[in-house]
Amino acid sequence: MAPPGYLNWLIDTGERQATACGREIEIWALNPQEDAAVLSEWSKHFREHYISDSDLPFMAGGTGLDHATFLRTILFPDAKVAPGPSLRSGDFGEIIVADFIQYFLGYWCPRELRYQDRWNRNDSTKGCDVIGFKFANEENPGPADELFIFESKSGMSTTDANRLQDAINDSIKDRLREGMSLNAIKRRFFDRGEMGDARKVERFQNQADRPFCRINGAAAILDEAVFAGTDFTATDGAVHFNQENLRLLVIRGPSLMKLVHALYERAADEA
C-alpha cells in the first residue's frame, strides 16, 4: 500500500534535543500545503479509520441522515462539545504516529479497528495508543521480531504541561495494558474471520515462550506555539521499564487544531 501523500509534508528536521536522562528526542515538522488533491486523499485516509467507504452507505442507511451528517453526529468526535475537540486532536496524533511507524519505519500497524469499534464517539478508546509489529521472517518467527508500542499525546492549545513527559509517563502504564490491547486486536480479527492477522498478533502474546524484541515509544504532536514553550531538556525517561529501547519523538506544526477541524470537515463533506 502506497503511503498517503500528506506524509511528504512530514519532514525530519534533523534537530535533536537531549532529555534530562540523556536520551535523544527526534524533532519532525508537519508543514501542510494548499494542495486540494492531497488534502482530499488525506481526509479519505482519515475517514476510513472510522468507517470504510464501502460500509458507509449501509451504515448511514435507515438513519435518515446523509453521509456527511451521519459522520458528524454519529461517528466523528464532536467539534465543539467537550471532550470532542480533545478527542479529535488525540485521534489525529495517534493516526499520524501510526502512519509514521508504518510507512517510515516499516511496521505492520493495524489501527482502524481501534476507531471503528468505538461505541461512543465522544469517548476515547482504551489501551495502548499505537501498536506495530515487524517480522524478520513471517514463516519462521524468531527473537529478531519486534513489537513496537507507542504512546501519543497531542498539545494543540496553550498549556504548561510537557506533553512528551506526559506520553512517557503514560507509556510506563503500557506494561500493564499491553496484554489487554493485544487481546483486543486479536479478538477483533477473530470476530471478522481474519485468522491470518489474528495469528500474527498471537505471535507476540507470550514473550517467555516466543521471544521477541519490545520497543516502546513516546510521541508529542504539538502546535508550533506549544513546541516553542516546552522545555524538552527537563523531560526524563529514566524510570521507564524499557528505557534501553525507548524512542522519543516530537512532531510540530503550525495551527494544528485548525488543521484537525478542517480535516474532519473535509472528511465528512467528501464522503
From TrEMBL:
InterPro entries attached to this UniProt entry: AbpA_HamA_C
Keywords, comma-separated and alphabetical: Plasmid
Pfam families (UniProt xref): HamA
Domain (Anti-bacteriophage protein A/HamA C-terminal): residue spans on this chain: 8-267
Protein name: Anti-bacteriophage protein A/HamA C-terminal domain-containing protein
Organism whose genome encodes this protein: Paragemmobacter aquarius
